[in-house]
Write a structure and sequence with these properties.
4 domains, elongated, five-stranded mixed beta sheet, about 775 residues, 28-stranded mixed beta sheet
Length: about 775
């Protein structure tokens, strides 16, 4: 007995180092890879094998992939139990269990070459098997404990890995078609984890997947995006709890149910300047079955989406990212030999969308909550900005079998205004729909950047209201559209070399009606692709204004004078960079001084409303042009003469020589707007100091009249408030405490009488609904 035990020990003691030698010398030579290990234990009697600290190096025959010095695969320990009885008597190689302890694997790709391509070729039969196999092969259990697996793609490049990989599988018998495994892992370079139960049938090429995903970081998308974009930043993560079954034979062969949510999506110029983002996109699926053309969703919700579109002198923000007309995407999409995950996803989505449109679909609730859409136009002389926020779009029960789907749209308009839209559409025919829309309380001054660019005249008053009804059948349009602009009033002309000129005083006199409104009904008919605008009523109104409106001239002048008197009693408007009172403003302030001296119990509160964004834009433009002007003419003085100031003021910020000068001194390709370039050229600190000094000079100019009469203590200045004013200009809001000026009271009474007369009484409700800045101040 002792001899048997001693013999067994000697066999084990001898066979273990022999096995280590054979693997390191002959197996390594066969695989063309260096293999090392600390020690090997082999028990031929029980079939147990253990390899400690296994390392398999990269092949030296693949220089395009690696140099052979790095590790292809390693494991702290590899253990296996083999069934000796079945091997000897049943001609079956059966591994009862194989365990990989803390394995690390490396996949490296260069174009179509992989760091294990040679091994695939090595183990691929050159001829199809014609005889039955001599041995059967079973693996009864496979375990991976705390693994790490890396993927490097050299061309793009991509660096990605997963960690804490754990796998437990019952393995596969030689006569079975399926393999099942429970897998879990964590994202390597980010946050999140994933676990699932996977079953694959190798014969039918079908699979089943039950997966749960928690806040899994999608940073790998950003790596693939870098090949497609000129610049930019991307972040997002995903949650999911889905069940999928399908086949590998076609893209559309799957059935899915459960929930998928993409969270904290951000894409933009950089990590703090988004072009597009959302808090959460949730797809709650009852059944998604492309093969059988069925898409059933409990809900599709998009929470707090944000989208910013900007026009520049050259291209827009999206074309700056993806190339002119999306050339970067088109180039990558046209190259089928080069894999890009983003393009692959785009192709797959395209297939599903085409399938979706041909399928039966139902969404119990489709909604967008708290949307924020922004449009900025930097291609004109001044920045134009408008937004929809908060935006809500809700559609209940979107069902292809229904004859109609109703969608409601409601949003605020930034900086001012509201919008509502109701859509009823045939889900089977987008050419059949009914649409009602209404935009109100939109300030006409918001469009001053366009008015200045194309007419030279801004507005400082006016409210826009637009509403209409569209009925479309088979693409044929029949609509009524109503445009109403209440109390439009032009401001002083801006003389600038970049601005075109139109005779706005004449144009306004022709298009305004007696009640100081622009009121037009504009029907649109015809095909959606070629609509016809019916301007008959517009032409009639123009003719009527030419021949009829002159009779109401005295009435309109009286209204205008009263509006001006009331407005000047309650506000003091500041032109851009204006630091001292104009002669008319001095007369107005002197009237307040006289009123306070005559009414000892009266006082006024002054509330500065500062249009900081526009004031800074004006300052940065002027200071940049001034600096350019001084340097280009070799003038060393810090201060400009009056004549030179006028020259600088009229100089266009879009002047090609000036822009070239800025680009030369900045040398920053990521500055797309003239505002950014001027700001960087002058410096934010200087611009902020100039604005602070400007506000101080305005206050001193205003207060000097009261100080001269020693009544400054009855003028209380509030802290300045940074707003976007309704009238498009910074202003002082003046509130009277105690007595009110008799002229102001009289003007209010007379204005009320005039509002009730025929020309203005017609629009009394509209004026009340679309409250102007002046009416807000008077409240």
């Amino acid at each position: 007995m002792g001899f048997i035990i001693l013999t067994a020990v000697l066999v084990i003691a001898l066979i273990s180092p022999i096995a280590k030698y054979v693997v390191e010398k002959y197996v390594a030579k066969y695989l063309v890879r260096q293999i090392t290990m600390d020690w090997v234990y082999v028990n031929p009697f029980t079939g147990y094998v253990h390899i400690s600290n296994l390392k398999v190096y990269e092949s030296k025959n693949l220089p395009a992939i690696s140099n052979g010095d790095s590790i292809f695969f390693s494991a702290k320990g590899v253990s296996a139990n083999m069934g000796i009885f079945k091997l000897l008597f049943l001609k079956t190689i059966e591994i009862e269990e194989i365990t990989l302890d803390r394995p690390k694997g490396m996949i490296i790709q260069n174009k179509n070459d992989l760091n294990f391509s040679d091994m695939i070729t090595l183990f691929t039969p050159t001829k199809p098997r014609t005889k039955p196999a001599m041995f059967h092969f079973n693996i009864m259990r496979i375990k991976i404990i705390d693994g790490e697996f890396y993927y490097h793609e050299k061309l793009i490049p991509i660096n990605y890995f997963i960690k804490q990989v754990n796998l437990d599988s019952k393995g596969k018998r030689w006569d079975a078609d399926t393999i099942n495994a429970q897998v879990s892992f964590h994202q390597g370079s980010g946050s999140g984890d994933m676990k699932g139960d996977v079953t694959i049938n190798f014969k039918s090429k079908e699979y089943r997947l039950d997966v749960s995903v928690h806040k899994y970081d999608l940073n790998i998308i950003e790596q693939y995006l870098k090949e497609l974009i000129n610049y930019g930043s991307f972040t997002a993560n995903v949650d999911a709890d889905v069940k999928v079954r399908g086949g590998f034979n076609t893209e559309e062969n799957f059935i899915a149910s459960g929930m998928v949510a993409v969270n904290d999506f951000h894409f933009g110029k950089n990590s703090y300047d988004d072009y597009a983002s959302f808090d959460k996109l949730i797809l709650a699926m009852n059944e998604v079955n492309p093969k059988n053309h069925k898409y059933l969703f409990d809900s599709v919700s998009l929470i707090h989406p944000y989208l910013k579109f900007e026009r520049y002198d050259y291209l827009d923000n999206m074309q700056m990212v993806f190339g002119k007309n999306g050339v970067n995407l088109a180039t990558a999409y046209a190259d089928p030999t080069k894999f890009n995950l983003v393009i692959a996803i785009a192709r797959y989505v395209k297939v599903l969308v085409a399938n979706f449109l041909q399928s039966y679909y139902k969404v119990n609730r489709l909604a967008i909550y708290k949307g924020d859409l922004k449009f900025n136009d930097f291609a004109i002389s001044e920045k134009f900005s408008v937004g929809l926020n908060p935006l809500y779009i809700v559609a209940d029960s979107v069902d292809k079998n229904k004859s109609r789907v109703k969608v409601s749209f409601k949003s605020g308009i930034k900086p001012y205004g509201n919008s509502t839209l109701m859509l009823s559409i045939n889900p089977n025919n987008s050419g059949n729909f009914d649409l009602q829309y209404h935009f109100n309380r939109v300030p006409a001054t918001m469009f001053n950047p366009y008015l200045i660019t194309y007419t030279s005249y801004p507005l400082d008053r006016g409210i826009i209201e637009i509403n209409g009804m569209w009925n479309v059948r088979e693409g044929i349009l029949n609509s009524d559209n109503h445009l109403l602009i209440i109390d439009p009033r032009r401001a002083t002309r801006r003389k600038n070399k970049n601005a075109s000129w139109l005779p706005m005083p004449l144009i306004l006199s022709l298009i305004r009606e007696g009640g100081n409104v622009i009121d037009y009904e504009i029907p649109i008919t015809g095909d959606l692709k070629n609509p016809k605008f019916h301007l008959h009523q517009v032409l009639v109104d123009l003719i009527e204004n030419i021949f009829v409106k002159p009779a109401t001239g005295p009435y309109r002048m009286q209204v205008k004078n009263l509006e001006t008197e009331i407005e000047k009693s309650l506000t003091l408007k500041w032109e851009m960079r204006q630091s001292t009172l104009s002669p008319d403003q001095k007369k107005f302030v002197d009237k307040i001084v006289t009123f306070l001296k005559d009414n000892q119990d009266a006082s006024i509160y002054v509330y500065p409303n500062e249009y900081e964004e526009k004031e800074k834009e004006s300052i940065r433009f002027f200071e940049a042009k001034k600096k350019y002007f001084l340097l280009s003419r070799n003038i060393n003085d810090r201060f400009l003469s009056v004549t030179d100031s006028l020259i600088v003021d009229k100089m266009s910020v879009k002047d090609s020589v000036f822009v070239i000068y800025l680009n030369k001194h900045l040398n920053d390709t990521m500055l797309f707007t003239i505002q950014e370039k001027c700001n960087n050229y002058i410096g934010s600190a200087i611009i902020n100091a100039k604005l602070k000094q400007l506000n101080k000079e305005r206050e001193e100019s205003f207060m000097s009249h009261f100080k001269q009469k020693t009544i400054a203590n009855r003028v209380i200045f509030s802290a300045g408030e940074n707003i976007i004013p309704f009238n498009g200009f910074s202003f002082y809001k003046i509130s009277y405490h105690g007595e009110f000026p008799a002229d102001l009271i009289k003007a209010h009474r007379k204005m009320k009488e005039l509002n009730n007369e025929v020309p203005r009484e017609k629009y009394k409700k509209e004026r009340k609904r679309n409250k102007s800045a002046l009416s807000d101040i008077q409240k």
